[in-house]
């Protein structure tokens, strides 16, 4: 009578099976081993089975694992790439609206107040010229709000626009209209800016 299967199971085969990956192919190989190990007369054929059949299954299974690892690595790399792209877009969406609001407010300030330096011009002409200037304001302000909405809330966008308007208007009133800013103006604008900062909290 043949020796029990467990006695005929070589130690090297134990090491080979221990290295089998936990995948469907490996589980099928272990099932085959189990069926042969409990069959009558399996002791003599067991070592040959482990050396040939299991090794072949292991090789094919490892190839499958390598292929899976490659796909997983590709997915991880793609996820990292997408994550980096998303962070870059968020950084863009946080900075560029500020720049575009500054530019749009220059156009807006000239459209609203630029004609005050030329009060002798007919009102109809002032309206048409101001409307034409305001067109470029909209070309900048509308995209700024659309891009900024990725990062900021609508209230934050509006608050940002108003604070920038005060800054642009301060320079405009001094350099274009020749008016003088007093400490009352500075304190008033500062208080508005402090109040606006609460919109960005939380």
UniProtKB/TrEMBL annotation:
Keywords linked to the UniProt accession: Membrane, Transmembrane, Transmembrane helix
Any Pfam family the entry gives: DMT_6
Transmembrane parts of this sequence: 94-114, 120-140, 160-177, 183-200
Keyword Protein transport found: no
InterPro entries recorded: DUF486 (IPR007437)
PANTHER family: DMT FAMILY PROTEIN
Protein name: Transmembrane protein
Protein source organism: Rhizobium favelukesii
